[in-house]
């Protein structure tokens, strides 16, 4: 869905920019209205799917096209007719068109590999919460700020009857979105799989952008890749944040699934320590644990299934776009084996 919505915006930008080369008759420049439309859609895309290189490219191009079209928009609002476009306008639009096509090619080459929940015969559920680690979390009022997100992926042929639930705790360089294909495929094996994302102001992140849903994964991944020394220095604080998340999610899980439910926790990267501590403190609710970064073949540990969800980042990490989801399916296989081993003794 994200890729196709991006394509729509690119098509609007191309039509708007190419019009200066196609207009052969005297008429009102009505297609200029496409520039603000593309800008509004790119902002919506940015807010809906978060901060990324592709989102920044699209937003930057939309802003550029809006500025280039300000004189044309004024003429259109004044109902003036156009008999020709100036040479500077054509040169500007030619350069812009080249940049748009270049960005489109980058977007296509680094498009996500998605998994269909419908084809896997699984259902998805999302619950929003408001609150903080200090005061706890409740379901929000209509206009209140959402600070926690619960995602559930459940097989329509579920084997565990909600008596045992798999809980995934993500590394914050990816958040849940970076692991979505893994969560979907794991649920398709007959499990109820859930995960949380928290974005609260009382968490000990070094920068305010790290507490914002649409910017945290991008900035944390950027820090880890570009400034590994700084990331290692900050990592203990990040791990403590995830431990706070683990403590907060346990009562939420018990509220959703009941106190008789047992939870199998899966963690990755900076989430490992938090899950270990939670298991030690509340063993009565645990049926087992598994750590994705213990799998040697998992080369993007801490970043998620980026070979599918973020191919550009995967290339930065030395991996390739995985259109078949081979590594993700392997992670699911190893996780399923660990779950079966743990649950066979219950």
Describe the fold and architecture.
The protein has 13 helices and seven strands. The two termini are 40 Å apart. The longest helix has 30 residues, at 228-257. The mean pLDDT is 87. Helix 7 (180-188) links the parallel strand 4 (164-169) and strand 5. With 346 residues, it is α/β, with parallel strands linked by helices. The chain has a seven-stranded mixed sheet with strand order 2-1-3-5-4-6-7, with helices on both faces.
Compact summary:
The protein is α/β, with parallel strands linked by helices. The protein is 51% helix and 14% strand.
Poorly predicted segments: none
According to DSSP, the number of beta strands is 7
Major sheet, described briefly? 7 strands, mixed
Order of strands in the sheet with most strands: 2-1-3-5-4-6-7
Structural class: alpha/beta
Mean pLDDT: 87
Radius of gyration: 24 Å
- Overall form: elongated
What is the helix/strand order?
HHHHHHEEEEHEHHEHEHHH
Report the portion of residues in β strands. 5-15%
Classify the helix fraction into a percent range. 40-55%
What's the helix count? 13
Assembly classification: single chain
Compute the separation of the termini in Å: 40 Å
Layout: helices, strands, pairs:
Layout: H1 2-22, H2 34-49, H3 53-68, H4 70-77, H5 87-109, H6 117-120, E1 122-132, E2 136-138, E3 148-155, E4 164-169, H7 180-188, E5 192-198, H8 216-226, H9 228-257, E6 262-267, H10 272-281, E7 286-291, H11 306-309, H12 311-316, H13 326-343
Parallel strand pairs: 4-5, 4-6, 6-7
Antiparallel strand pairs: 1-2, 1-3, 3-5
Keywords for this entry:
seven-stranded mixed β-sheet, 346 residues, alpha/beta, single chain, 13 helices
């Amino acid at each position: 869905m994200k890729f196709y919505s991006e394509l729509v915006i690119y098509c609007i930008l191309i039509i708007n920019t190419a019009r200066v080369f196609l207009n052969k008759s005297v008429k009102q420049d009505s297609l200029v209205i496409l520039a603000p439309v593309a800008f509004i859609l790119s902002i919506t895309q940015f807010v809906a799917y978060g901060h990324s290189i592709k989102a920044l490219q699209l937003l930057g191009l939309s802003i550029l096209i809006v500025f280039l079209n300000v004189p044309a928009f004024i003429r259109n609002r004044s109902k003036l007719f156009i008999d020709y476009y100036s040479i500077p306008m054509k040169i500007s639009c030619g350069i812009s068109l080249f940049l748009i096509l270049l960005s489109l090619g980058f977007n296509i080459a680094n498009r996500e590999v998605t998994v269909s929940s419908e084809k896997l015969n699984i259902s998805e559920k999302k619950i929003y919460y408001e609150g903080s680690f200090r005061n706890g979390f409740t379901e929000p009022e209509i206009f209140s700020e959402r600070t926690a997100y619960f995602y559930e992926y459940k097989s329509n042929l579920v084997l565990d009857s909600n008596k045992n639930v798999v809980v995934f705790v993500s590394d914050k360089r990816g958040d849940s979105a970076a692991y979505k294909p893994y969560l979907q495929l794991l649920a398709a094996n007959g499990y109820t799989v859930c995960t949380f994302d928290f974005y609260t102001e009382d968490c000990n992140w070094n920068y305010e952008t790290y507490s914002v849903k649409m910017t945290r994964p991008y900035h944390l991944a950027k820090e880890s890749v570009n400034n590994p020394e700084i990331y290692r220095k900050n990592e203990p604080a990040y791990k403590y944040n995830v431990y706070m998340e683990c403590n907060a999610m346990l009562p939420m899980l018990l509220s959703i699934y009941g106190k008789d439910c047992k939870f199998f926790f899966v963690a990755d990267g900076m989430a490992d320590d938090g899950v270990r501590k939670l298991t030690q403190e509340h063993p009565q609710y645990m049926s087992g644990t598994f750590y994705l970064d213990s799998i040697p073949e998992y080369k993007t540990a801490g970043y998620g299934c980026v070979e599918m969800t973020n191919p550009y980042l995967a290339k930065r990490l030395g991996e390739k776009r995985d259109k078949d989801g081979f590594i993700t399916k392997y992670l699911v296989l190893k996780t399923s084996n660990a779950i079966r081993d743990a649950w066979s003794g219950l």
